[in-house]
Amino acid sequence: MFEDLLVVLDGRATSERIVEWIRRLCRTSGSRVRLLVVRDVEGTVWSGAHPVAYASQLEDATRLECLAYLEGVAARLENAGIRVSAEVRFGRPVDAVLEAARDSEARIVALAEPGRGGLRDAMDRLAHELLHRAPIAVLVARARDQRAA
Amino acid sequence: MRVKTLMRTRFATVTEETPLAETGVAFAREQLETIAVVRESTLVGLLRARDVETMGPSTVPSLAAHDWAWSQSSLTVGDAATADFAALDPEASVHDAIRLLVRQDVDAVPVVEGAALVGLVTTRDLLSMLLELLESDGPSGLDHVLVMVDFDESTAATVAAGAALARRHRARLTLLHVLPPPLRSLLAPGVPRGMLDWARRQQRERCLVDLGALVPSESAVEVGRLVVTGDAATAIIGTAARLEVDLIVVGSPMRRRFLGPSLTDELIESAPCPVLVVRPDAKAGISSRSAHARR
Question: What is the pTM of this model?
Answer without folding.
Answer: 0.65
